[in-house]
């Protein structure tokens, strides 16, 4: 069976809800606190797993109770955790999240995610290469991302890079991947330009820009703009919406669907996911997405 390999971060999300996010220097009262599974890598793996795909997760956790909880959670969502490394004496990745009414802020402590180094990748390389699609984000060391991109490129894999959180991406890396999926802010940082249309025309069917409530954009090979408007739905928590989109997009690509249909599917999944609290809360099953697309 065809598979997806996610190489990325695994975090515990310490999520505080408040009526709004505080402004600089301000203290406000919160409403609740929860410890819930997150991390962009794990989130994208769970998104794909819930949609029924065969997913292998590659990453690291610490030898603490959060690590154990997070590995169990991946398993419960149908993600294979056989190759996750438990690193002694290191803390599992942690994200401190504030969820306001319409937005959120996130501070990350990488912890064990920094142990996802080239040496670890070399030890699981043959396992990664069992997958047709490789999915990466920006919460592991840059060097590792570049190594995996090269590996995927040399072996004719479909590589999806979700460049979040924002940092620069080398031109050579962009050339070697199949899809780059930044939001607007990440696009500006990566390309040093806000000419989104021009950029998408330069990278047709490769650069996919997510624009929150304005939906998702790309340009097809004949230069026509593709825009899939955001789903009209009640928003409870947008944390992980981008991750749902990437995980779902990976599933569509694995199934050989064309880019427009893949984006409709991914956008629908992301729209459904914001209806529930937590990065992984609300990530839909395949049938839920299909029903919503009818
Ligand atoms: O994309 C959302 C994720 O970003 C959260 O789950 C948090 O862990 C951070 O990595
Ligand atoms: Na959610």
UniProtKB/TrEMBL annotation:
InterPro entries: Carboh/pur_kinase_PfkB_CS (IPR002173), PfkB_dom (IPR011611), Ribo/fructo_kinase (IPR002139), Ribokinase (IPR011877), Ribokinase-like (IPR029056). GO terms for molecular function: ATP binding; metal ion binding; ribokinase activity. GO terms for cellular component: cytosol. GO terms for biological process: D-ribose catabolic process. It comes from the Bacteria. ATP binds at residues 183, 210-215, 242-243, 267. Gene3D superfamilies: 3.40.1190.20. It catalyses: D-ribose + ATP = D-ribose 5-phosphate + ADP + H(+). Pathway: Carbohydrate metabolism; D-ribose degradation; D-ribose 5-phosphate from beta-D-ribopyranose: step 2/2. The keyword Lyase does not apply. Its EC number is 2.7.1.15. Requires a divalent cation, most likely magnesium in vivo, as an electrophilic catalyst to aid phosphoryl group transfer. It is the chelate of the metal and the nucleotide that is the actual substrate. Activated by a monovalent cation that binds near, but not in, the active site. The most likely occupant of the site in vivo is potassium. Ion binding induces a conformational change that may alter substrate affinity. The keyword Nucleotide-binding applies. PANTHER family: RIBOKINASE, SUGAR KINASE. Homodimer. Belongs to the carbohydrate kinase PfkB family. Ribokinase subfamily. Belongs to the carbohydrate kinase pfkB family. HAMAP family: Ribokinase (MF_01987). NCBIfam families: D_ribokin_bact. This is Ribokinase. It comes from Peptacetobacter hominis. The gene is rbsK.
